[in-house]
Amino acid sequence: MSGPNRKWKALIVDDEELARKLLREMLSSHPEIEIAAECGNGMEAVKAAGEHKPDLLFLDVQMPKLTGFDVLELIERQGVAVIFVTAFDQYAMKAFDVHAVDYLLKPFSRERFEAALERAKSQEGKKVVDAVELAATARPAGQFAERIVVKDGTKVSLIAVSKLDYAEALDDYVSLVSEGKKHLKQQTISGLEMALDPALFVRIHRSYVVNLERVARIEPYGKDSKVAILTNGVKLPVSRTGYARLKKLLEEKG
Amino acid sequence: MRVVPTSRPQQMIFGVGWIFFSLLLAVLLKSPGILIWSHALALAAVLSGLAQVSAISADFSCRTAPLSRTPLWRLLLTHVVAALLLTFFWVKVGVIVARQFDSIEGWKGIYGEYVLKTGMMFAAGFFYYLLSVAVQYALIAQKASNEAQARAVESSIRAREAELSALKAQINPHFLYNSLNSISALTSIDPARAREMCVSLADFLRLTLGMGEKPVIPLREEVGLLEKYCAIEKVRFGERLRVEEEIQEEARECLLPPLLLQPLFENAVVHGIAQMPEGGWIRLRATRNEDRVSLTVENSWDPEAGSSRKNGVGLKNVQRRLEARYGNEARLQANAEDEVFRVNLSFPVETEKAK
């Protein structure tokens, strides 16, 4: 559905009430846009996105619990135009520029608002930016994810990276194992690996990333392959390149 | 114990001392008597050299008995006993040296002449040692004053640096842009409140810039600034931000470096309140007991919010500024317990009147 008569369903996500009111006011002169919901935090946003299936998203970056990037990671992205709204964050701004994502800097003028809206509406069908990649670009060099967001059905969980034992690739998903529970997330294992601190997590196999602190020992397995035994007894296969990486990392740690 | 003079001025002084004392001893040995000048000078040079060793070692007894912290009787006792002992040995060694000279062909008689004059030698050595004690004390005092000067310069540079970075950190761009965005929203929704917030923001900026120029301000002024800051943040956060104050009346006039608490409040907002969907509280407690002020800033926080204070630039800055002003007298403690983040500062009481 496109063209001048198209109706747009929008979601406003910001933890500040005044900021939401401002967006609502600016949108009031756009009858083609219907505000489906206002959300005060990321959790609400994920829920509302599932319910309303919006085509336009105004997304604040800094919010409690779930950031704007987290929200983007957790919702169905196909066909959703996103405009980030942020006060001042040089890293986020750099990431938006790199990935050609539309954004508004608070406070913004009517002109800037209209321009961003026009651009977002006209870029329908363009390539969807990978939220994990976007978040990775927005992190200062040398900083890594501290937690991973996962949606189990409608429930959103935050897994602290320090509590992640290992992750296993399963087709288009990764299975994240933490505190005896498995969480499925639609993500590639390479994407996950990129977000994690390489000093703490190591890709020991095409399909496995492991938390270095959980590795109890490495044992030979068969002729020339090895197996990593975790502190909780779980055994994971280690490939030859994976073993080289693991050894190097352990040597660096002394 | 340092026996070898290390600094250039010390080497100079003992070099000059050696020449001067050699000449003095030579004069004493020569007249009245049978010695010829060259022999008297040779023996005097050796004796004077030995005397320099004890003069330099006087540094040790001076250090064990610092001038300002030793009673006079102990000072006299220490140095007089040292002078007597060292001079006694010096004269005895002189006997051995003179005997060696005496055995050289053509130098006969030098030993007899020396033995005749041991009393005079003793007196000269005794006073020379006491003189070197005085010189050592002067050197120690000079070194201490140089060090004190260097320390003062260094600490004033550090205080200045801390001041500058504190000022730079003060006006957080996030705070400014978010406040301006709130004003932008209010202009159409509630123009009166928009104007009010403009005024609050202007007051806050004025106070911040004005305070930065003073070395210290009374706590009540800092509290006034914090109230302005919170009023602005309350427009943004609404019900999510709750602030409590418990300030002992006696603490209000206590002096502190300006903008010491403001970064702690800002941390509490950014890492505490802003990370919780339901918001939280900030509490300031100020007490004064006898000679110390204790300030505590507490806020609710969510340990799982993932906003760690790893880099803690604000906190480090506060610590640096405290140290710059109060040295070891300052205490800063930050800890996170359950769902409360707490920073406690304490430092000596200063008030306007006491100054």
Distance between the termini of chain B: 43 Å
What ranges of chain B have pLDDT less than 50 throughout 5 or more consecutive residues?
A: none
Q: Strand order across the biggest sheet of chain B?
A: 2-4-5-7-6
Q: Count the domains of chain A.
A: 2
Binned, the helix content of chain B reads 55-70%
Radius of gyration of chain A, Cα only, in angstroms? 21 Å
Query: How many beta strands in the DSSP annotation of chain B?
Result: 7
Query: Structural class from helices and strands of chain B?
Result: alpha+beta
Secondary structure layout plus pairing:
The complex is a heterodimer of chains A (254) and B (355).
Chain A: E1 8-13, H1 17-27, E2 33-39, H2 42-52, E3 56-60, H3 68-74, E4 81-86, H4 90-98, E5 102-105, H5 110-122, H6 131-137, E6 147-152, E7 155-160, E8 164-170, E9 173-178, E10 181-186, H7 189-195, E11 201-205, E12 208-211, E13 215-221, E14 225-230, E15 235-238, H8 240-253
Parallel strand pairs in A: 1-2, 1-3, 3-4, 4-5
Antiparallel strand pairs in A: 6-7, 8-9, 8-12, 9-10, 11-12, 13-14, 14-15
Chain B: H1 8-30, H2 37-64, H3 72-102, H4 110-116, H5 118-170, H6 173-189, H7 191-211, E1 217-218, H8 219-237, E2 241-247, E3 255-256, H9 262-272, E4 280-289, E5 292-300, H10 313-326, E6 331-337, E7 340-348
Parallel strand pairs in B: 2-4
Antiparallel strand pairs in B: 1-3, 4-5, 5-7, 6-7
